[in-house]
Amino acid sequence: ETSSSVVYIKDLELTKLPKSTSGNVLAEDENAKVEGTGSGFIWDRFGHIVTNYHVVAKLATDKSGLQRCKVTLVDSRGNSIIREANIIGFDPEYDLAVLKVDAVGNELKPVTFGTSRELQVGQSCFAIGNPYGYENTLTTGVISGLGREIPSQNGKAIRGAIQTDAAINSGNSGGPLINSRGHVIGVNTATFTRKGTGISSGVNFAIPIDTAVRIVPYLIVYGTPYSDRY
After folding, report:
1. What string of pLDDT tens digits covers the 230 residues of the chain?
2. d(CA 109, CA 56)
């Protein structure tokens, strides 16, 4: 039930500026290089999508106009659709970003929010994402620890992170961590790997959903986090 609320994000770099910037889907004949992939989830029915900032950092800092973001998602009828997404807000300090797709005529299915306040070490959790481009991959595990600190994209520390042994690999970033009811409890963001191997160590982290619920509305309305508005 939750997988239809999870999206596949593909970062693209055009070799040249397109003649027309109109349209929701990048033309297949446009010469674009895939820069990276990631995951995200549908926040609301207005087409807002939450992901990690590091998944779309090149788009957020693009000065050339050549960066694009293509999102594959599923509507409420089960139809797979592809849209070009615009970035409307981001917060590197918490590694969160909000994209928006034009979803006119397609009813979207937002995730169901849980809470991260009452999590307990040992309880089951599940990660849904697109590791290495394999869409709608489910991995399972338990909450391994709470209140962890992990480095953020601007060099500061993200406090209160959820540690889990549910496998999170390249491409999982930005996808939801859910509980056994399918409620989102975190945003998958990082994994420790064994040096030189690229293999996950089983020490993985997610940003608590309570943090995202506090920050994302400001990103949707103002484009920047509350702390940057003053």
Report:
1. 899 999 999 999 888 776 655 544 455 446 778 888 999 999 999 999 999 999 999 999 988 888 999 999 988 788 889 999 999 999 999 999 999 999 776 789 999 999 999 999 999 999 999 998 888 899 999 999 999 998 887 778 889 999 999 988 888 999 999 999 999 999 999 877 666 555 667 899 999 999 999 999 999 999 887 666 55
2. 22
The one catalytic residue in 4, 11, 48, 54 is 54
Six token digits for residue 200: 């996950």
Exposure of 220 in the CB half-sphere (CA atoms within 13 A): 17
Catalytic: 200? Answer: no
Round to whole Å and give the CA distance between 144 and 31: 44
* pTM of the model as a whole: 0.88
User: Token match 């849904």: residue?
Assistant: 128
54 labelled catalytic:
yes
Q: To which H or E segment does residue 213 belong?
A: helix 209-222
For residue 11, give both structure tokens: 């970062």
Tokens 């900032």 sit at which residue? 53
48 included as an active-site residue: no
Phi, psi of 53, rounded to the nearest 5 degrees: -60, -40
Catalytic residue among 39, 144, 173, 200: 173
Neighbours of 218 (CB within 10 A): 18
The pairing of strands 6-14 and 32-42 is antiparallel
Exposure string of 41-67, with b = 16+ CB inside 10 Å and e = fewer, is bbbeeebbbbbbbbbbbbbbeeeeebb
